Amino acid sequence: MTDTTKTLCPYCGVGCGLEVSPPAQLGKAINRDGQGDPIWKVKGDRNHPSSQGMVCVKGATIAEAIDKNRLRYPMLRDSLDEPFRRVSWDEAYECIVHRIQSVCATQGADAVCMYGSGQMQTEDYYVAQKLLKGCLGTNNFDSNSRLCMSSAVAGYVQSLGADGPPCCYEDLDLTDCAFIIGSNAAECHPIVFNRLQKHHKKNHNVVKMIVVDPRRTPTAEVADLHLAIHPGTDIDLLNGIAHLLLRWGYFESEFVSECTANFPAFAEVIPHYPPEVVAKRCGIAVEDLETAARYWGTSKRVLSLWSMGVNQSTEGTAKVRSIINLHLMTGQIGKPGCGPFSLTGQPNAMGGREVGGLCNLLPGYRHVQNAQDRAEVEQFWGVPAGRISPHWGRTAWEMITGLETGDVGLLWIVATNPAVSLPDIKRTQAALLRSPFTVYQDAYYPTETAAYAHLLLPAAQWGEKTGTMTNSERVVTLCKAFRPPVGEAKPDWEIVAEVGRRLGFADKFPFTNSAEVFAEYVQLTRDRSCDMTGISHAKLAQSPLQWPCPDTWANNNSKRLYTDLRFATPDGRARFSAYHSKGLAEPPNSEYPFVLTNGRLYGHWHTQTRTGRIEKIQQMHPQPFIEIHPRDAAKLEIQEHDLVEVRSRRGKAQFPAKVTKAISPGTLFVPMHWGALWGDETEANALTHPECDPDSHQPELKACAVQLSLVVQK
Ligand code: SF4
């Protein structure tokens, strides 16, 4: 294990290829405990098709996090007020098996929940689906992709017939107009944005960039047009652009009549969105709205990019579908340089979707409510007909409400930190306190969530296990191990498979390595839109591959979906949707006059489990802050660096003020990375609410109504 190893950055969904090589002094011996190992060398992999050698600060510093704050051994305690004691893996397995059997016997299998993560590799996900959905017979597997991408999933499925972004990164080099909405890609997906920016700069006279965001983010800074709309007015804006496109005749009638359905319903909605009305609702100038529509209408190739600002909303699915409407009416899909392209948050959020890693999905983009889908998976897994429930399992938030009502008897959390990342965090934490038994399987300790666990299971992490991940452009990369796990840590799939064997399902988990897990899984993708039967660990060891990649294809040529303009619906036609704007679930009022939004910073990742331990990143972003527009600050006599308090109907938090015109008046912004481990009262989610989109069940993390007051002047 001393040669350079090719792998993938384990942070965001851009999925940059990395090359890792050991420091010179490591060649002689690898300290299995991981203590004091020198830092591994990381650089971008020039041959990776998605990133071509580029990395951002997170990828460049990832090796510094490998050995810090690791959970090394299984640990157990009987109650949360006791200290943990180290136990053997055998004792840990027997404990969890006994607990699952006991909960199944007394409350039924639907009282068992697993909450996973887009940090899991596809093999980890697959084994978990088989155990929960196929063996135990509960669909209670959900992941933090519910907080991240589930609105994009629902939007793609409803409009195009199947999940999966139809575009690829090459489209960033080919587009004439990038329409970026609800995404601060410059900070959150920097390598994708760098590529787009390079194209934009080089062709500035012809390539336009529109950014829709209530903040003047670094992404908006370089745009030709920044539409700083009021939070919650996205559908007004999108329907308003559609109105102008129709009025001005930017409409592909042949494409619409031959390749789509439901246009009449959409056409009935659009007259209600004339530019004067839309501009007023959105808080923008009519001229800017017209410029956006003109850019879109006159461009041959429009690429829309979006992320959490669209998805994390009670209207998330409707927003995604409204973006897709614009592509359908102008025929901007299935061709180079154009299409609706959601940017995934986590490194394997895409893989999780493909393998059925949400409580409404089954492997191969199947759905639990579809009888044929269930039957196919049951037959493949060799489990009795009817074993897979026809109902959605518990979503991420429903696991929390299930703890509150006593309907969840065991919660098994894998590779995520919900005690920071779920909405209404004080309510979430109170529910976790009531959990009869929580298993926390993670690479790191301490974390905020570990404080609520009864059993800690040490997981091998990036670099310590071999498996696959799929990035935002459907490229599957083999992430190879380059060192042994620390302490007694094991790959997630191995832990779950062993629990399955001990629960009496030995024949379902015969795997001796992750390549065998992957080989079984891809058979469930055969003839599906995400066909990966032509992909194996052995082939990926040569090069990453993009799906679809059936084993019948001689070459991997899957840059774009729907190039034949046949969509994945039963009749092959994409579906227009017809939505009226409903606005925010919690609009501001006289008592709570501000809208609080939140997001990521360039260097930090999610709840800082890794990045909080990296000195360079800590120096970049040492503490949270709140952005306040100068006009709002002046009214409340708040000055730069003053300590201010933000209160919502659910909780409060305090931050130093950053007075800036980057945020719109009436809107506030805080970064979302700080949890209880980093100090008191800086949790963004102490303020957020858990109202969810009715289709995707994604919470509206991006907006809540708050009060603002001065605490201490600097
Ligand atoms: Fe990693 Fe994303 Fe940065 Fe690429 S852009 S190096 S995948 S964090």
UniProtKB/TrEMBL annotation:
<protein>
    <submittedName>
        <fullName>Nitrate reductase catalytic subunit</fullName>
    </submittedName>
</protein>
<keyword id="KW-0560">Oxidoreductase</keyword>
<dbReference type="GO" id="GO:0042128">
    <property type="term" value="P:nitrate assimilation"/>
</dbReference>
<feature type="domain" description="4Fe-4S Mo/W bis-MGD-type">
    <location>
        <begin position="2"/>
        <end position="70"/>
    </location>
</feature>
<keyword id="KW-0500">Molybdenum</keyword>
<dbReference type="Pfam" id="PF01568">
    <property type="entry name" value="Molydop_binding"/>
</dbReference>
<dbReference type="GO" id="GO:0051539">
    <property type="term" value="F:4 iron, 4 sulfur cluster binding"/>
</dbReference>
<dbReference type="InterPro" id="IPR041957">
    <property type="entry name" value="CT_Nitrate-R-NapA-like"/>
</dbReference>
<dbReference type="InterPro" id="IPR006963">
    <property type="entry name" value="Mopterin_OxRdtase_4Fe-4S_dom"/>
</dbReference>
<dbReference type="GO" id="GO:0046872">
    <property type="term" value="F:metal ion binding"/>
</dbReference>
<dbReference type="Pfam" id="PF00384">
    <property type="entry name" value="Molybdopterin"/>
</dbReference>
<dbReference type="InterPro" id="IPR009010">
    <property type="entry name" value="Asp_de-COase-like_dom_sf"/>
</dbReference>
<dbReference type="GO" id="GO:0043546">
    <property type="term" value="F:molybdopterin cofactor binding"/>
</dbReference>
<dbReference type="InterPro" id="IPR006656">
    <property type="entry name" value="Mopterin_OxRdtase"/>
</dbReference>
<keyword id="KW-0534">Nitrate assimilation</keyword>
<dbReference type="InterPro" id="IPR027467">
    <property type="entry name" value="MopterinOxRdtase_cofactor_BS"/>
</dbReference>
<keyword id="KW-0479">Metal-binding</keyword>
<dbReference type="InterPro" id="IPR006657">
    <property type="entry name" value="MoPterin_dinucl-bd_dom"/>
</dbReference>
<dbReference type="GO" id="GO:0016491">
    <property type="term" value="F:oxidoreductase activity"/>
</dbReference>
<dbReference type="Pfam" id="PF04879">
    <property type="entry name" value="Molybdop_Fe4S4"/>
</dbReference>
<comment type="similarity">
    <text>Belongs to the prokaryotic molybdopterin-containing oxidoreductase family. NasA/NapA/NarB subfamily.</text>
</comment>
<keyword id="KW-0411">Iron-sulfur</keyword>
<keyword id="KW-0004">4Fe-4S</keyword>
<dbReference type="InterPro" id="IPR050123">
    <property type="entry name" value="Prok_molybdopt-oxidoreductase"/>
</dbReference>
<dbReference type="GO" id="GO:0016020">
    <property type="term" value="C:membrane"/>
</dbReference>
<keyword id="KW-0408">Iron</keyword>
